[in-house]
Design brief:
The complex is a heterodimer of chains A (about 260) and B (about 475). Chain A is α/β, with parallel strands linked by helices and about 260 residues long. Chain A has ten helices and twelve strands. In chain A, about 40% of the residues lie in helices and about 30% in strands. The chains are: A alpha/beta (about 260), B alpha/beta (about 475).
């Protein structure tokens, strides 16, 4: 690892409550450009809360701590501003928006980001060509273009759609919230291929996951175990394999 | 509810006892009649329009009948009492001298709205009533378009002109779908209507263009009691667009129009409305009371009438575009988007009356409520004993934005024929926080996200609109829901 790597995300002593209940309890996390971090942990440990707070979901209250993205205070930014700045959340449960065309949403998203950077809107023809290229990676057929956002999609299709959106938006920091859950092995490989496509020295990725099986396909640089709202242990890929073997209890026991 | 009824009863009493003396002055040269309604006013309107005797008599019968009718209060609406004697029932178009002299004199808020709607500059001036004679090149546009229609044999003209040029058609069809006894507001309209549109499409003719009030030069200031009659003869086809593309700040409060459609054998009439009358301000002051009777009759076999409406304006909307499916195998359709924001109220829906065998109807209604708006769908599907094998499909969806608004659904079904089938689906949903957040998390601004979600909700109706109208309807929706979420 070179010391010159840019720090993309810096989370310090983050404390978050939901409806008065404390979920994150002094969480620290540093993600540098080029890195893939996996965040694992038992149910209710705060994994999804972390993902949602980073994206700016209004249902979470930050009671203490700080989050910076490229050195700037991320918590001060509205959710849409975070997205335009290059933070992407892949949803655990992507919602359906009936009647709103997939391509229409994608184009609006791309243009919103371009506008924020002072660029002109994308050419519709070029855009469609680009989306089609990315759809090939995600093995999605043309009928997807005209369908409503996640409307009538299977669980696997919804997850693939999240990764497609990520590929189109090319974020600097992608946070994927249990993108692997509910996928069969073929779909998992497709999703992993999508995530790997975007791996580069300039970008980073935070994978929130229950299982190590995704990490066979997207090999992480760092693995963290989240227990009761803070990171109880960090390590390399071997930690994920150990968790797979021994379960979470031993980490939880050590952290207690 | 009883107060306005008492009010009109009092007025009625006043009328009958002969105490009503509003100092009506018969000044034939004058272009505005003092407020009030009696036989003299009706005669004056008829004379001003140089109408034949049958029409004058018809109006007088309507007036007589109207006086015996109570104002209806069954709708889910709160209406301040209307003083029918305080309304002036005839007013010729305002002199252009009274209007603003240039766009610089027009209310900037109004211009900002035009801007958002994407109304072309030359049209903005026209809509705002700017007193410039050659606001845009209307003469040449109108001429080419009249020539094309004439070549096809299509009659499209102001109602008052048709009364003089095609009196036999008027006598045959006027009131044949909406009789002068129909309902309080239609009856009032029958007595005092001043103008409107008339369309006749001859046998076997496919109207070569969409007919739009946009092209009708005198479309502005036709008053609050319009009367429209569209007749599609056998095997003909016509698409009619009715709309005001911007908020007209009409000084009059009451708008009671009547539209009658007649489709003969194998004929097709598509009637699209984008209604954006002034809805009143954010506190609920002012705005148009829109009490409209729209009905089409599929008189011939295999005829087809399709209503599409996008209602975003008016303080109060009371409107039920309906189809009487008389001809065997005839088809009626109703596609509606009704939006209420601030203190707007809408009670709207449709009636599908199945008389003929194998008649079919489809109802798709999308209600959007925001602010303190109250939105009611009221629909009747009636299968008469003769309607063998008739079918109806109804879908009513409501979308709520915020916690102060309301959505109500009153679907009435009467089936008198056991072989008829009626299907009804209904849903009420809120724009969910999760949908909104999903869009925000993709970088899309909140207002754009709401517009996107609402447009998606309305998609199945918007796709029925002619292309240019669909774009306008989406813009209109965006403007009327501005600030509804934020």
């Amino acid at each position: 690892m070179s010391t010159a790597k840019e720090i993309l995300l810096q989370v310090q002593d983050l404390q978050v409550s939901v409806e008065g209940r404390k979920i994150l309890n002094g969480l620290n996390l540093t993600v540098a450009a080029g890195e893939v971090h996996a965040i694992m942990g038992p149910n209710g440990s705060g994994k999804s809360t972390l993902a949602n707070v980073l994206a700016g979901h209004p249902g979470y209250e930050v009671t203490a701590g700080s989050v910076t993205f490229r050195g700037e205070n991320l918590l001060e930014l509205a959710p849409e501003a975070r997205a335009r700045a290059g933070v992407f959340l892949g949803f655990q449960y992507p919602v359906e928006i009936p009647g709103v065309n997939n391509v229409y949403l994608l184009k609006a998203a791309v243009n919103a980001a371009r506008k924020a950077r002072g660029l002109e809107e994308v050419d519709a023809f070029d855009f469609l060509g680009m989306v089609r290229e990315k759809m090939k990676i995600m093995r999605m057929d043309d009928s997807f273009l005209s369908r409503g956002v996640n409307e009538g999609f299977s669980g696997g299709e919804k997850k693939r759609n999240e990764i497609l959106q990520m590929l189109v938006l090319e974020p600097a920091l992608a946070i994927l919230d249990e993108t692997d859950s509910g996928l069969d092995i073929d779909a998992l490989k497709i999703v992993a291929a999508g995530v790997n496509t975007l791996r580069s020295p300039e970008r980073a990725c935070v994978l929130v996951t229950h299982y190590q099986r995704l990490l066979d396909h997207v090999v992480p640089d760092v693995v963290h175990v989240l227990v009761r709202g803070r990171i109880a242990r960090s390590g390399d890929k071997a930690l994920a394999l150990e968790l797979e073997r021994r379960g979470y209890d031993w980490v939880a026991g050590e952290a207690a | 509810m009883s107060e306005p009824a008492n009010e009109s009863a009092r007025q009625l009493e006043g009328l009958l006892s002969g105490s009503y003396r509003h100092g009506f002055v018969t000044q034939i040269d004058s272009d505005t009649v003092p407020p009030g309604l009696d036989e003299d006013v009706v005669r004056l309107i008829s004379r001003k329009k140089q109408e034949p005797q049958f029409l004058t008599d018809w109006r007088l019968r309507a007036l007589k009948h109207w006086r015996s009718m109570p104002e209806p209060h069954w709708a889910h609406l709160k209406i301040a009492p209307i003083d029918y004697q305080a309304i002036s029932y005839y007013s010729a178009p305002k002199s252009k001298k009274d209007g603003p002299k240039s766009l610089a004199e027009v209310d900037p808020a109004l211009l900002a709205t035009y801007e958002k709607l994407g109304v072309p500059l030359h049209e903005r001036a026209r809509l705002a009533g700017v007193a410039v004679d050659a606001v845009f090149d209307s003469v040449s546009v109108a001429t080419t378009f009249k020539e094309r229609l004439a070549a096809a044999g299509v009659v499209f003209c102001p109602f008052s002109e048709a009364v003089r040029t095609h009196p036999h058609l008027i006598e045959q069809y006027l009131g044949s779908v909406v009789p002068y006894t129909d309902n309080f507001f239609a009856t009032l309209n029958s007595a005092v209507f001043t103008d409107g549109s008339f369309v006749y499409v001859p046998k076997g003719v496919r109207c070569p263009m969409e007919l739009s009030t946009y092209f009708r030069i005198n479309a502005l200031n036709t008053g609050q009691f319009e009367r429209t009659l569209i007749i599609a003869d056998e095997d003909s086809h016509v698409s009619y667009l009715e709309g005001c593309s911007a908020p007209m700040r009409d000084e009059n409060q009451l708008h009671a129009a009547v539209v009658e459609l007649v489709a003969l054998e194998n004929a097709y009439i598509k009637y699209s409305t984008v209604q954006n009358w002034y809805p009143g301000d954010a506190q609920g002051k002012g705005g148009i009371y829109n009490f409209v009777t729209k009905r089409g009759e599929c008189r011939g076999a295999r005829s087809h009438i399709s209503w599409t409406q996008v209602e975003t304006g008016s303080a109060i909307t009371w409107k039920y575009p309906s189809c009487v499916l008389r001809g065997a195998g005839s088809i009626g359709e109703f596609y509606s988007v009704a939006t209420v924001n601030n203190y707007q109220q809408a009670d709207t829906g449709t009636k599908m009356i199945h008389i003929g065998a194998d008649t079919r109807s489809t109802i798709i209604s999308k209600g959007i409520s925001a602010g303190h708006g109250q939105n009611t769908y009221r629909g009747l599907v009636k299968m008469l004993p003769s309607a063998h094998g008739a079918r109806n499909f109804t879908q009513c969806d409501s979308l709520l934005m915020g916690g102060e608004c309301g959505a109500h659904t009153f679907p009435y079904v009467e089936v008198k024929n056991p072989s008829a089938t009626v299907e009804h689906e209904a849903s009420t949903s809120k724009i969910s926080e999760e949908q909104l957040f999903y869009c925000l998390a993709r970088g899309i601004a909140a207002e754009d996200a709401v517009n996107m979600i609402v447009s998606g909700f309305c998609k199945s109706v918007f796709k029925e609109l002619p292309m240019e109208f669909a774009v306008e309807a989406q813009n209109l929706l965006a403007v009327s829901l501005e600030g509804a979420v934020g």
